[in-house]
Amino acid sequence: MAGFDWQHRIAGPVPAFFLVYMILIWILFEISVKEAIIMGMATWLVLSIIEENIIIAIQTKYVIEERRFDGIIMVAILLIIWSFYYIFRNRYNAQAFRMPITVWILLDLIMLLLMAMLSFFTYVIVKNLPNTKMITAGQILLLIGGISIIILLFIFVYFYGTAYEYRIQKEITEMQIRQQREYFERLLEREEETKKFRHDIINDLLELHNYCENHECQQMKQYLEKVTGVVTGISNKSYNVGNDVINTILNYYLIPLKEKYDVEVSGMLSNNISIDDRNLCVICANVIKNAVEAVSKMDEGRVATLFECGKSYLHIQVENTYEGDIEFDDTGIPKTSKCDMTNHGIGMRNVFEMVKKNEGTCRIEAKDGVFKVDIFLKS
């Protein structure tokens, strides 16, 4: 039988296709070897189920030695699938098939059991039913069941993936809302302090004038130091690099950090750039959040950000100190150190996806206890 043959070892076109497919998706889609194996297994099992159903459909009319047609059937299936993808590629959500590795593993196990059951019952029907009519009826029932399984699998994957993507987008939106609320609260606090300063400045000027009249230079110097200290304190209440989205992120993550650690913010970036605000938020928030989390684990640390905008490029640099070793996966993305490997580690993958989507590049360097991310985007 096709797929799991109970009379022959699995050999030939299907495993060969499986190996070639894994290598191709590993190279073309820049995923890790583990992801290529798991997703390749899922694809092979789906194609095996489709192949099994096609052979069952043929056997209801003709008696064939199906192993002779494995390669032809598999090529035909692939051509049909790629044709549908090419025609309808803009009508479905490609992100819907983006799921955690654990879900792909579970899906592989489910399909493996379904494939084994389908092959087993096909073998039982063909070899043990007494007459042709019963065999044909059994094959038709198996065909209906197999087609139903394929449809249900695709529906499950699509809707689960859509829900998973929606959850990620919801978390990003909630993070943006929290950042905006924190930013505006700090702006209100700063505005209140500015009002107090304006209210007191007349009295301060009168006091300074009095010191001048009495030639009390030392007292005037001390008083000026107090006034400039108030002004400096107000100006240090928030960061401003010229872009509202980045200002929100910087003030949300870095202001609480600078009470204990060294924080440097430099450069300017206008609001008039081509990249979408949401994409910019995903990129900057994830990189800066990772830097803050790494530094927060240290007794002493430093976070430095740089923003530059040229005529045709936008440069974002985030640098932070860290302790321990950083491991990278096969795609060059740092592995998460958190226990929940499924939900964490998504941040940097989102960064790489957004950078690639906006025709940019992302370079990561970890050396001598300093982790540095350089992102270049079209401005």
From TrEMBL:
Cross-referenced PANTHER family: TWO-COMPONENT SENSOR HISTIDINE KINASE
Name by which UniProt lists this protein: GHKL domain-containing protein
Organism whose genome encodes this protein: Butyrivibrio fibrisolvens DSM 3071
GO molecular function: identical protein binding
Database matches in InterPro entries: HATPase_C_sf (IPR036890), NatK-like_C (IPR032834)
Domain Sensor histidine kinase NatK-like C-terminal stretches: 279-377
Keywords on record: Membrane, Transmembrane, Transmembrane helix
Annotated TM spans: 12-29, 36-59, 71-88, 100-126, 138-160
